[in-house]
């Protein structure tokens, strides 16, 4: 598929979530998980792990989120596995959100956009994660490449780690940094139906939301439930009426059910069903 016939990301995400339910599963091949699955901590073990995840999940789960670092640590062989994970997951109908958390000066950002958000690149995914630490505006080349090709981005706003609040909750002219990220994303998503392609990342573990997401008009990726201690009830409390655009994501919480393909798939489906009933979705 080329950018000419790919629908905008917000529409594609909305459709796949309507069909498959609101869940993203992270493909995070931790060395400890490889061991638990009886696999060697090398590129062959990585390949078996990652392709088992694709086999179990890509035909059923709306979004898969491979975490790049766990592939990069095996060098070029690991990156080759990541390329297969992206291509084979897309073929099975999943949206692939490549978790790379990029952010750099504009001209270098253009090179990241060419690598991850442009047709013809072997690492092009449907969306990537971005860090706004160099300023939201520095991410512009990624926004443009994504918009042009029916792809999306998820910008870190309130991350799930305990160190996050020093920076993200700091005030800038009376608004928190996180709120400035929300507002800048909202401005770019305004008027797009059903939703815009600039998503945000807001952790399930953050305690209180403290930002106003009402005008975002974009998806919210919510990591941190499961292995990091966040619960579905935390998600419901945090997002209340904006719950419809929330996409919970979990990695270890599902991956620990492997290596059996059926056990892995049923744990993912069980998680998805729990989200659907907690949210009163669909
Ligand atoms: O962008 C992310 O995906 C992300 C943002 C965040 O605030 N917290 C967070 O945990 N993540 C990622 O989400 C995944 C969480 O994995 P588990 O804790 O195993 O569910 C990891 O790949 C993290 O890198």
Automatic annotation (TrEMBL):
Catalytic activity: orotidine 5'-phosphate + H(+) = UMP + CO2
Keywords per UniProt: Decarboxylase, Lyase, Pyrimidine biosynthesis
GO molecular function, one term: orotidine-5'-phosphate decarboxylase activity
Stored Pfam families: OMPdecase (PF00215)
Primary enzyme class: lyase
SMART domains the UniProt entry points to: OMPdecase (SM00934)
Gene3D superfamilies: Aldolase class I (3.20.20.70)
Entry protein name: Orotidine 5'-phosphate decarboxylase
């Amino acid at each position: 598929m080329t950018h000419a016939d790919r629908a905008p990301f917000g529409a594609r995400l909305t459709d796949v979530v309507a069909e498959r339910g609101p869940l993203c599963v992270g493909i995070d091949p931790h060395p400890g998980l490889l061991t638990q699955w009886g696999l060697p901590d090398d590129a062959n073990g990585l390949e078996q792990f990652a392709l088992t995840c694709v086999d179990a999940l890509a035909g059923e789960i709306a979004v898969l989120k491979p975490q790049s670092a766990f592939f990069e640590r095996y060098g070029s062989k690991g990156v080759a596995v990541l390329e297969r994970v992206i291509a084979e997951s897309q073929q099975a109908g999943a949206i692939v959100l490549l978790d790379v958390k990029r952010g750099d000066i504009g001209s270098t950002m253009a090179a990241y956009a060419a690598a991850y958000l442009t047709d013809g690149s072997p690492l092009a995914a449907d969306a990537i994660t971005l860090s706004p630490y160099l300023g939201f505006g520095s991410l512009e080349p990624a926004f443009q490449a994504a918009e042009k090709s029916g792809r999306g981005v998820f910008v870190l706003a309130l991350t799930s780690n305990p160190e996050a609040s020093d920076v993200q909750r700091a005030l800038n002219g009376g608004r928190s940094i996180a709120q400035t990220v929300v507002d800048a994303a909202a401005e770019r998503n305004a008027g797009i139906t059903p939703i815009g392609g600039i998503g945000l990342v807001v952790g399930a573990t953050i305690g209180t939301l403290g930002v106003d997401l009402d005008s975002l008009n974009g998806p919210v990726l919510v990591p941190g439930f499961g292995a990091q201690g966040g619960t579905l009830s935390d998600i419901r409390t945090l997002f209340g009426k904006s719950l419809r655009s929330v996409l919970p994501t979990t990695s270890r919480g599902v991956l620990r059910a492997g290596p059996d393909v059926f056990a892995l798939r049923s744990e993912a489906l069980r998680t998805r069903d729990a989200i659907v009933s907690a949210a009163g979705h669909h």
